[in-house]
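This section describes the prediction task in plain terms. A model, or a person checking by hand, is given the sequence of a single protein chain and must write out its three-dimensional structure as a string of tokens. No templates, partner chains or ligands are provided. The sample shown here is typical of the held-out split.
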Amino acid sequence: MPSINVILTGLGNIGRTLLELLVADPERLPRRYGFTLRLVGVADSSGVAFDPNGLDMPAIIAAKRQQRGVATLPTFRPDLDVVALAATADYDLLLEATPTNLRDGQPGLDIVRTALRRGKHAVLASKGPLALAFGELAALSDWADDLSPRSSRPALRFSGAVGGALPTINVARRDLAGAHIERAELVVNGTTQVILEQMAAGADFATALAEAQRQGIVEPDPSLDVDGWDAATKLVIFANAALGQSTTLADVSVRGIRDVTPAELAAAWRAGGRISLVARAERQPDGRYTLSVAPETLGSDHPLARLSRGEMGFVIYSDSAGRATMSSLEDGPLGTCQAMVRDVIDVLRR
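The expected answer:
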């Protein structure tokens, strides 16, 4: 049975939960897909652990639960930093889950660049590298060959970066292939969903944010969620990957949820709808899309008004496929980890 050597960069909520998912059911991948994953390198803010024979995943999980870094592990390598790990280790596939950095995308951007330049496949949960350098990373990967199975370039996958387990990119690019997407409305920030629902039920902002943090879905910097930048980042990735439009954050009009009042929330809910932070792409007569993120009142007849309990979802309108709607209720970061697993399977099926 093939054993795939992987490195994992980032051990926050997503990275740690991914390891927990793999350890909880070690036969999940070999039983159904005929391969195993051998973790040979891992990195967090304290440093790098590396063992070419495979790291002890339960020990890593235990350390993170005890709020200890990998620097406390016997396999700690003080001579390596995270980019050096990606540059020198013997591995087949990178799993990238470092925190979102919208200033310069680091360290995730250099990690992914390094892996792809070495011909290593990359599966990302992190959004910064894709939002800031999509064109560069696409050119280094099989996206340059339109994801052809005959591509000689390494695979780049990131479905978990746009709505967790929601197959947002997959539906828009693969399942709606051949259709002209006229409008896409994405509710893909679970933090603001929870906050707005809690506030509609009477909680103040601080209490609502604390509940979202308890669920493990808030960015390390909560302002990325609250001020709309996480949703905008996901919309940039969606525009580049699914709409084929070269896009940066500067192309998106962004307004967060800080100005939404309890009265507005209550009124929307009384009318059978809700207020959600919506990432919107609308096709213009010249074929380009205008892009925006803002809180919107969704009437009772809107497909996304049915979302509740922190659910995320999207609705896509196209000329030949009509309206496609999907929603997802996830358990904290587990949905993003599931998306990373499906991306790994997709890469290895090549």
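For orientation: The radius of gyration is 20 Å.
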